[in-house]
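User: structure tokens for Peptidase S1 domain-containing protein, please.
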Amino acid sequence: MAHLTFLLLLLWVAVTVSTVVDLQKRIYGGIDCNQNERRYHVSLTLYADGRCSHCGGSLIKNQWILTAAHCRSRPMFAVVGVHAGQRNVQRIEEINIITHQHDDIMLVKLSNPTAGIPTVPYCPNINNDPTINLKCATMDVVNCNNPFWSTFCQQNPPDVPQQNRLCLQRHGVDIRPGDSGGGVIHRDNLYGVIIATGELACTCETLSIRVCPYMTWINQNAGLKT
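Assistant: Done. Predicted tokens:
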């Protein structure tokens, strides 16, 4: 979705195979999104080896961002309020990073709470029914046990236990570099974080990590209550 500069990937996901998801950001096969949607998405800018790259994230509280651990870098800064139409863009360079000991999920604490930026509730109910409304693009939840992923899509398997994975795929639709860390959303609640796709566009499943199994870790490290 070339027209949405900085706006981070957004997916809707149910917990069963063959349901439909919706996508957002610089995806292949997407459309422009409403400027009033997904205002809790955050842009993370990373610097490593003289290069600048980007990841996505979700503002779960006014001082906490949830993203993917492989996005970790120093230096690194967060930009909130990046959605088109928002006027209170805030660049925050003083951050504290907390990565999971084993899996590809990470918390980013901002030096100061954000002001005027909405947050997204996370994993309030894992049994919500699927929605039929599509936001920007669609994908299907597919079987994560497909051996094609490990043999072709990535030489190095992602740091996510098999039971904590959500795999997504549809012909002609895929994420792009910079979408890692973006949120998996169902009915305006955060259920997952995007972590990987194949090297070639539209050839492999998009892989995300479920948020619900990490609720205790998130709340203990961030001092939060759902």
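User: Anything notable?

Assistant: The CA atoms of residues 11 and 174 lie 11 Å apart.
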